[in-house]
Structures are given as structure tokens and as C-alpha cells.
Design a protein that fits this description.
Structural class: alpha/beta
CATH architecture of the largest domain: 3-Layer(aba) Sandwich
Helix content: 25-40%
Largest sheet: 17 strands, mixed
CATH class of the largest domain: Alpha Beta
Distance between the termini: 73 Å
CATH superfamily of the largest domain: Zn peptidases
Radius of gyration: 26 Å
Low-confidence stretches: 1-23
CATH topology of the largest domain: Aminopeptidase
Length: 496
């Protein structure tokens, strides 16, 4: 009996070990990893994916919005993790950071509100910024408007002394007839709910508009309309198809504060020296954007997938490089970019102001949104457990593409190539335009894209780990290979 129990226990232990190892493994059909890379490869685990992403998508970093305190804390935390993994600071003045100048405009939440009588109808978190900063206070009659591209005929001063709440089929600017001829005292521009942001970070120098204005989402604009005894369905998410003006008998007490300041926001930049001294100046670049949408209108957008997942993955690659006994022959430049969500501004800044010569950059490997299984009305997430989009890998160098295919034999992702439309929408594009060969690992879109629901729930930690495994191998092979031959066709020219 004792022997039988012992045998059973050993068998159970063996089964459990195998089962656990299958959880922390590449996909079925993958071949053995070359021995010179194995130690680093095996250091990448699903457990670490979860541990790192739990911090990145956690409350302390509050969605890592560029220019917000949460991003600054995340950048510091990320640099500390790189130091633990043997990387050296490669930023400005011996720091981990390359700073970008920005202008931040945000609603003064505490002092912004709309009231009718004694009732506060809308508070500061309900508003979004536009091209205005300053303070406005006034008690105003209100006009609600839906306007098409062809504006309605207006008398001079039609909105004089009034609050204009307007949904337009086209963008409203300072020269719009609604403002120039209508002369409203204050304007609230109604836009789709998803496009209203309580903070904006931009590198543009802005002159505040002469007319106080802010944004409202459709939902909040209809709330104001209801309180003003106008139909609560006056505004819709769709662009107006005809002009309509509605004047309310209510007066609205308007208190609007929009703050503006200059700030510096960093890219995080780390360097791992190559093992061959004569090749050390050449480097493989790997990056992911650290930012997301942050805190907007009182809601946190955690950005677990976008792009906590990519940031997690490159930290795991950093650890694999440091863990592996055989180091990369050429150096590794690792970057966590700011302001990708603001128009790739962090990577564009580095590409225009490189801290290491771009001519020495062998390739750039970018990872963005690889934490969920792609999902749409036509394609359930269950069909994408082991798929990943390999974007742009053939545009500049087929050699880099083929090297990536070779590396994937040891992971066995099913590559998909039907998302080339996102080629210019992530940070690799900033380097491709300079002629640097690139690859872009992208998981595809899901219903959680740019929503507060992009939390840890539903994250595929195996996919994060396997993207790290794939790009770790690609990086190590590229560091052995050196500069890639560039294509001579039109695609390569387009990439530049």
C-alpha cells in the first residue's frame, strides 16, 4: 500500500510538473531553442508577465497618461526595473530619460460646473478641453444647435450674450461663422462621448481662443438639454443631417476653468553593451510605448493591453538578455516611449534627436497591444489563442522578415498579415521613415480598445510571454547578424 501511494504521489507530481511546464511554454509544434539562447528564453514566464502587468495597469500609475503623475511614476519604476536587469542609463546627462517639451491643457475640475438655479447640472469631470485656456464666469441664456457643413443663415450677433451648445458635422474653429457672426459669449462643442478628454498634451504652441469654449460628450449635452427643458435626445452620436436651433428659456450659470502649463515628459532609454567590443557601437533597438490615456473625466483608462502588455514584454526581454550566459554580440537599445497615444510623439522625437547614431541601428523591434486575443463581431477571441500580426516586416528588409520567421520556429505563433493598415500607427513607423528595418508585433483590436475596461480581466499572459520569447530570439539573432540588406523595391522606399 505504501509503495502504491508513493508511486501514485510520484506520478501525480510528474503530471503536475508537466502540466505546469506546458502553461509556461511556447505553442504546440515549436522546435527546441538553440542552446546558446536557452537560459534567457526559459527565464520568460507567464507568471512574470502577470506580475509585471499587474503593477503597470495598477492604481498607482492611473493609466500612465502622458503628462500625468501616473506616467511619471511609471517611467521611474520602469527605469528601476531596467537597472535590476543589468541595463545602463542611456538618456540625457547620464540619466535614464530623454525629455520632450509639452504643453498641458486641462479642465480645472474643482471650479468648473454648470448650474440652473440651485441645481448643479454638470460638474468638472463632465467637460473636455478645446482650443481655449483661462477662466469664464457668467449667467447666460442658452441656445442648442445642430449644424451641418452648410451653416444656417445667421443675423449678426445671433448668439450675443448667450451660451451656445452645438453639435457640428465639421470641426468648429475661431473663424467659423457661428462664432464670428454669431458672437456667442461661451461655446460648448458637442462631440462623440469617446472623443471628449479632460486633458490634452501637445507639442503645439497654442494661443487661447478669444471665445471661452470647452467640449461635452453627447450624453452630458443631452443632460443639459433636459435640464433646460429641451428634448433629452436632441444630440446624437451621428453627425447632424440638417440645421436646427433651439432656444431655451432657462439661464445657465457657467463656471469654466481651463488650465495651461509647460511640462517635460520622458522617454525611458536603456543600453546593454554588446559582448564584441568592435561591434558594440552597433545596436538592435527594441521598444514599446509606456503611455496610455490615463485619467480622463474622472475615469481611469488602465491600458492593460494598450500598452501595458508591450511594456511588460520588453521588460521580460531585458531580463532574458541579462540572465542568458551568452550576451548579444551587438548592443541593445531599449526604449519605453511616451506620447504614442498623442501621435507617436515620443518615438518621433527620438528618431529626430537620436542619442545614438541611427546609422548604427541594425533594426527596430516594436511591440504594441499583444495582451488579448483579437476579437470582433465576425471573429471570436477563442480563434486567436496563438495568432499574432506581424506588421511591416517586409517593407524595408526581407532579410529581417526571414530572420523573424526563423526565430518563430521556436515559438510557433500563427502569423497573420491582414493588419498592414496599422503600419503608421505605432512607434516603429518613426524609425521606418528613417530607413531602419522594423518588425511590429500587434495582437489586433478588441472591444476593450481605448476603454476603461482594458483591465487585467481577459488578458492572455501566455501571449505576452510568447511575444517576449519571439522578440528575444529575433533580437539575439539580429545582434549576431548585423545590418540587414534593404529591399530595392517601392515598399522599401515607402518605408523611408
Amino acid at each position: 500500500m505504501k509503495r502504491s501511494l508513493l508511486t501514485y504521489a510520484m506520478q501525480l507530481c510528474l503530471f503536475t510538473t508537466v502540466a505546469c511546464s506546458n502553461v509556461n511554454a511556447q505553442y504546440d509544434g515549436a522546435t527546441d531553442v538553440p542552446s546558446r539562447f536557452r537560459e534567457g528564453f526559459q527565464s520568460i514566464t507567464e507568471k512574470d508577465s502577470k506580475s509585471l502587468l499587474t503593477v503597470l495597469a495598477g492604481a498607482d500609475f492611473a493609466g500612465r497618461g502622458t503628462g500625468q503623475q501616473g506616467f511619471m511614476k511609471a517611467a521611474q519604476w520602469f527605469s528601476e526595473r531596467l537597472a535590476e536587469r543589468g541595463f545602463q542609463p542611456a538618456g540625457e546627462d547620464g540619466s535614464w530619460f530623454q525629455f520632450l517639451p509639452f504643453n498641458r491643457t486641462e479642465i480645472g475640475v474643482e471650479s468648473t460646473k454648470l448650474s440652473i438655479g440651485e441645481t448643479t447640472v454638470l460638474s468638472g469631470n463632465d467637460f473636455g478641453v478645446e482650443n481655449y485656456f483661462g477662466n469664464f464666469n457668467g449667467q447666460l441664456p442658452v441656445t442648442f444647435a445642430r449644424v451641418t457643413k452648410k451653416r444656417p443663415e445667421l443675423e449678426d450677433g445671433a448668439f450675443s450674450g448667450r451660451l451656445l451648445v452645438v453639435r457640428s458635422a465639421t470641426r468648429i474653429n475661431a473663424n467659423d461663422v457661428l462664432i464670428v457672426k454669431g458672437r456667442p459669449a461661451c461655446v460648448l462643442i458637442v462631440d462623440r462621448d469617446s472623443r471628449v478628454r479632460s486633458q490634452s498634451v501637445s507639442q503645439l504652441e497654442r494661443t487661447p481662443g478669444a471665445v471661452p469654449l470647452a467640449k461635452l460628450g453627447v450624453t452630458m449635452a443631452n443632460k443639459l438639454a433636459t435640464a433646460s427643458e429641451i428634448s433629452g435626445e436632441f444630440f446624437t452620436e451621428k453627425n447632424p443631417e440638417k440645421n436646427q436651433l433651439m432656444t431655451s428659456s432657462s439661464e445657465v450659470d457657467v463656471h469654466l476653468t481651463v488650465e495651461h502649463e509647460s511640462i517635460d515628459v520622458p522617454n525611458v532609454v536603456g543600453w546593454y553593451p554588446g559582448s564584441v567590443e568592435s561591434l558594440r557601437h552597433e545596436h538592435v533597438c527594441i521598444g514599446a510605448h509606456l503611455d496610455h490615456l490615463g485619467l480622463q473625466q474622472g475615469s481611469v483608462y488602465p491600458g492593460a493591453e494598450d500598452n501595458g502588455s508591450g511594456s511588460t514584454s520588453i521588460l521580460q526581454i531585458a531580463n532574458a538578455i541579462h540572465t542568458n550566459a551568452q550576451k548579444p554580440q551587438r548592443s541593445v537599445l531599449l526604449m519605453a516611449f511616451c506620447a504614442e497615444e498623442r501621435g507617436l510623439l515620443g518615438s518621433k522625437h527620438y528618431a529626430a534627436n537620436p542619442l545614438r547614431p541611427l546609422k548604427d541601428m541594425v533594426c527596430m523591434l516594436n511591440i504594441d497591444m499583444i495582451g488579448r486575443n483579437e476579437e470582433s463581431d465576425k471573429e471570436p477571441a477563442s480563434e486567436n489563442e496563438n495568432t499574432i500580426h506581424l506588421v511591416g516586416s517586409k517593407k524595408i528588409s526581407n532579410q529581417l522578415h526571414e530572420l523573424t520567421i526563423t526565430a518563430n520556429k521556436h515559438v510557433n505563433f500563427v502569423f497573420e498579415y491582414d493588419q498592414e493598415s496599422v503600419y503608421n500607427r505605432s512607434d516603429h513607423a518613426s524609425f521606418a521613415k528613417k530607413g531602419v528595418p522594423i518588425t511590429f508585433l500587434f495582437g489586433g483590436f478588441t472591444p476593450h480598445y481605448h476603454k476603461p475596461t482594458d483591465t487585467l480581466e481577459g488578458i492572455n499572459f501566455s501571449k505576452i510571454a510568447n511575444c517576449a520569447r519571439l522578440d528575444y530570439l529575433t533580437l539575439m539573432l539580429a545582434a549576431e547578424h548585423g545590418h540587414f540588406e534593404k529591399n530595392a523595391d517601392d515598399d522599401a522606399k515607402a518605408g523611408q
